[in-house]
Hints:
It is built from two helices and six strands, in the order ββαββββα. The chain is α+β, with helices and mostly antiparallel strands. The chain has one domain (28-93). The radius of gyration is 20 Å and the shape is elongated. A hairpin with a 2-residue loop joins strand 1 and strand 2 (9-13).
Amino acid sequence: xxxxxxxxxxxxxxxxxxxxDPEYWEEKVTYVHPKDxxxxxxxxxxxxxxxxEIRIKRGVPVQIKRKFVEVLQNSLAADAEADEYSRSIEGxxx
Length: 94
């Protein structure tokens, strides 16, 4: 954030950026990965992005870089799609 003077008042400028900016992916955001009650034992998940790894506990709010949230959300979406496909195949066999 930068500051500048306008009419003898200090104004704080907040940078607005999006997915095309590298800083966007490095920004920390709050994320809660859902619990998986089918897994016994270790209640954590590991994520690796560009040779940077983190491990978070499921069901606990954490501050992690947006790039990790993107990977985790994509993984959940892929799992849901695979489950839906499996159910559709089972229905065809029915």
